[in-house]
């Protein structure tokens, strides 16, 4: 039974920082790619950042140099550190866990409920 719970969202001024947390239950990080996605009103959900068990990372071009993804394996927690925030970063941010089996089967994996990030201009 997989459960992903996001926290850390809020209202911040442009140029500010936030750190999002995702606490996972029912998974082992070594068997999953962990990722952060976001969805703005009226737009498709998009990948923000991901991290493999080996430490490899991937970032959307729009956040490179500003966002960092990290893991705390002992507590099954993944973080998204967001710096130099821009109004266009405003969205609901979702945590995602995708296993090798998910990938083989062409499945998206498991999702959290999301946390709202609002960046004012």
Set down the secondary structure blueprint.
Layout: E1 3-7, E2 10-13, E3 18-25, E4 32-39, E5 46-51, E6 57-59, E7 67-72, E8 77-82, E9 91-99, H1 100-105, E10 110-111, E11 115-120
Parallel strand pairs: 2-11
Antiparallel strand pairs: 1-3, 3-8, 4-5, 4-9, 5-6, 7-8, 9-10, 9-11
Could you walk me through the main structural features you see in this protein, from its secondary elements to its overall organization?
- With 121 residues, the protein is mainly β.
- The protein has 1 helix and 11 strands, in the order βββββββββαββ.
- The radius of gyration is 14 Å and the shape is globular.
- The N and C termini lie far apart (40 Å).
- The relative contact order is 0.30.
- The model has no long low-confidence stretch (mean pLDDT 96).
Compact description:
With 121 residues, the protein is mainly β. The protein has one helix at 100-105, and strands at residues 3-7, 10-13, 18-25, 32-39, 46-51, 57-59, 67-72, 77-82, 91-99, 110-111, 115-120.
